[in-house]
Amino acid sequence: MKHLISVRDLTKDSAVALLDSAQQLSQVNQRTVKSLPALRGKTVVNLFYENSTRTRISFEIAAKRLSADVINFDAQASSTSKGESLKDTAQTLEALGAAAIIVRHPMSGAAHALANRGWVSASIINAGDGRHEHPTQALLDALTIRQLKFSGSDLTGVKVLIVGDLEHSRVARSNILLLSLLGAAVSVAGPAELVPEGIAAMGAKVYKSFDEALAEQPDVVMMLRVQLERMQKNEAFTTRDYIKNWSLDQTRLAQLGKETVIMHPGPMNRGLEISNQAANDPRSAVLRQVENGLAVRMAVLHRVLSGEVTN
Amino acid sequence: MIILKNLTLSDGSIQDIRIDAGQIVEIGRIADSGTDCTDLIGLAGFVDPHTHLREPGFEASETVLSGSKAAAAGGYTAICAMANTEPVADNSTVIERVYDLGIEAGLCFVQPIGAVTKGLKGLELANIQDMSRSRAKVAMFSDDGMCVHDENLMRQALLEVKKFGGVVAQHAQEPSLTIGAQMNQGAVATELGLTGWPAIAEEQIIARDAQLAEETGSRLHICHLTTGGGVEVVRWAKAKGIQITAEVTPHHLLLTEDLVRTYDPVYKVNPPLRTTDDNRALLAGLVDGTIDMLGTDHAPHSGEKKDCEWENAAFGMIGLESAASILHQVLIQSGAGDWTLFENIISKRPSKLTGLNNHGSIKVGAQANITLFNPHERIGVAEMNQSKSSNNPYLGLEFIGRVQHTIYQGQFTMIDQSVRDQK
Amino acid sequence: MSNRAVLDGPDILRALRRISHEILEANEGPENLVILGIPTRGVELAKRIVEILEAIEPNQIIEFGILDITMYRDDLVNAEREILETSLPISGIDNKVVVLVDDVLFSGRTVRAALDALTGYGRPKQVKLAVLVDRGHRELPIRPDFVGKNLPTSVSERVSVQLLGSDGIDQVVISG
Questions:
Q1: Residues of chain A neighbouring C121 (CB-CB closer than 8 A)
Q2: Which one of A31, A141, A254, B259 has the fewest beta carbons within 10 angstroms of its own beta carbon?
Q3: What is residue A310's predicted lDDT score, i.e. its pLDDT?
Q4: Distance from B376 to chain A by nearest Cα, in Å?
Q5: Do A129 and B196 count as a contact with CB atoms less than 8 A apart?
Q6: A1–C80: do the CB atoms touch at under 8 Å?
Q7: Active site residues of B
Q8: CATH assignment of B45-360, given 3.40.50.300, 3.30.2310.20, 3.20.20.140, 2.60.40.1730?
């Protein structure tokens, strides 16, 4: 596997293999010596066109645990008419020796362009492109669900409900694709204006209300972050209505099963999409998600940099 | 003098044609020898109602000369150049400049299209009368690239062109429904995380403008129809007797939104590639006459405007050199239509649209604008190289059927698949 | 390409018995031993050695583990490798006598990686190396403590160890 751009790049087998690798690597966290020499001498660049301290740090620690040299490059998204183009920036980074470029970009398809347009030969890892995908987030979510809900290798039969702003969520898109690839039954619910046309075609059952979806007793409830800066541009959006209809509040929390897992990709808006009680609930897997993020990103980095299978 | 031997006309008859002093002087059986055209289809020279030549302003992408070469290679003897140059063709000075450059190139007739509004800004009408009286005798006006979305302005424009029997060519796209739009709205756009361009934004403007055309009694042309719903609206308007015509591009007949999955901006075009169902509806509309003609919307862009992220890339694809081969594939090879319809779509009707009376028919006494199409030979993208730009979406495809010779004003502009140099 | 079997099932069994006895002798008994298999074939060999040791010393439980070295290799670009399980005795490896078990000793790079990996888990009192086949051609200063069979080979030849658990047959084959 040269790049990881989209969940569509994975087969069920290769996804399971990545989860297995990540599971092994997650144990490194418990050791006194936490670093592995696998990527010694390799340079990995975090090319971030959007602020995301969490994801960047997660990738940075993952790369350092594997003994890679890490460079953080905070870029401003620029159009071709002003500033340096993505192509030129990437070629510059490669000329400086980058073996892998981890890219976060506000435009859908930016990572795909880096990987496929012949601009660079480095491995490209998509750390979130516009509203398109965020594959390592989906992998860490899948690993978390597998650890908590399932003893097998895939997620056959697990019922996952994803709630919130589906329109703008790359986390939702990657999760719908990956979790259903792994055999989970994925459903989604969100305000009508934030449920994009055709999302069912990606493999999710669409519910019109949170409560209706909860009545189906999901094993996992994944709350999406409300992107307030985006919402405030929408005149129809009011925080009060959102909380009333779409927040995992105390009442809804009480309806969850004893073993239901609560997930959130972070950072959380406590009191908005997720109540304080839900965030603090013992069923919340939020910190486990963060921890698994590290292991998943180690596994992905190792996989994309360890060459093709030769027969 | 040129003598063409044994060519097959669109009615199926096999004829010889004698051309002298730029005119067709004889059609029938001619004893003298000449260029053998056995198995070639002789059609009235192609006319493109919708080309972007980029000169003045963007000469790195295309010039009138390079665009004329691409036209000759594609079998075109007349092309209508859209107004979105820099400066905009919203006055007779720019119009006549483009017109003269066309004559200078001498490879096809270049008919400039005038802008409807000043600077294509959609705020204030351009001096339409002035352009119609210019040497280029502009009859068609369009803000193509932008929609004339203000109802009152559109109505005024229709009234203005009515005074001299002109036509307004509308780029049907309601702007408020397509803010930031990147591709066809639907499941593919959702998965790719790209902002959708809904069909309703096209259909609604067509319906509105058809009503305005009816009310003003003026002529309306719809550029690049892309949706099945749009075809329905045009069908309805025609049934009501409204003076409306419509064009479709080769790429909207052949390509679909699935290509956007590659995020390769070579497939980024406005209006966007749609679905297979739309392809079918457009072809059906073309066959039943709802859609009158083919317009290439040839839109050259220099490399850097396409070699970037999808959302940063420019809209548009080139198409002059591939248009006839694609029409051959979707219309003739599929069995949907015959050569008479082919000729109507690619020559007769577009020449009528803009009053290009020297084009559109092969008859004695007419200017000799003739395209000889070879329906058996193959053509690939590598051979389509006359344009200065290479944003050609048909990469990797091969078509059966290509232009063999193009004759403009009685001279070969392309002979045996090779374009003549500037005269 | 020719294939020839150089060890068969009974040969392998005898070799493992001898190695087991030698381990006990060198260690002066079964105490404090950890037998660590290097995936993939080394794991099965380590398990068999543990079984033999426990048969010889019925009152003693011999500690067993798996040491995956994927992340410690220095030939990253050659192949895409799965990261396999590492499992060590709960009591760890500090101050134990660790016997690394692998199927074939060749360049020595695998063992180098294994030694590197061990440092991440603790500080053994002693590390020893047991291999079923030593085929020579070392690229590093590494030598085995316990060898099933020394096999002189040319560099271009391939030595493959096949075991019941993974291959359905016990044999060592040279091809090339």
A1: 31, 33
A2: A254
A3: 38
A4: 34
A5: no
A6: yes
A7: 297
A8: 3.20.20.140
Among A10, A267, A308, A264, smallest CA distance to A140 is for A264
Map out the domains of chain C as residue ranges.
10-75+82-151
ipTM: 0.92
Q: Which domains does chain A have, with CATH numbers?
A: 7-134+290-305 (3.40.50.1370), 136-288 (3.40.50.1370)
Query: Average of pLDDT values for B217-243?
Result: 98
pLDDT above 90 covers a percentage of chain A that reads: 80
**A65 touching C (Cβ < 8 Å):** no
pTM of the predicted protein model:
0.90
How many residues belong to chain A? 311
Please tell me the predicted confidence (pLDDT) of residue A309: 41
CB B51 within 8 A of CB B67: yes
CATH of C10-75+82-151, one of 3.30.70.580, 3.40.50.2020, 3.30.70.3270, 3.40.50.1980: 3.40.50.2020
* DSSP calls for B93-140: HHHHHHHHHHHHH-SSEEEEPBPSBGGG-SSSB--HHHHHTSTT---E
User: Quick check: A197 and B312 CB within 8 A?
Assistant: no
pLDDT digits (tens, 9 = 90+) for C154-164: 999 999 999 99
pLDDT above 90 for A31: no
Closest partner residue to A33 among C77, C84, C119, by Cβ?
C119
Structure-token match 């690229």, residue found: C139
Reduced to 3 states (helix: H, G, I; strand: E, B; else coil), residue B156 is: helix
Size of interface A-C (CB pairs under 8 A): 57
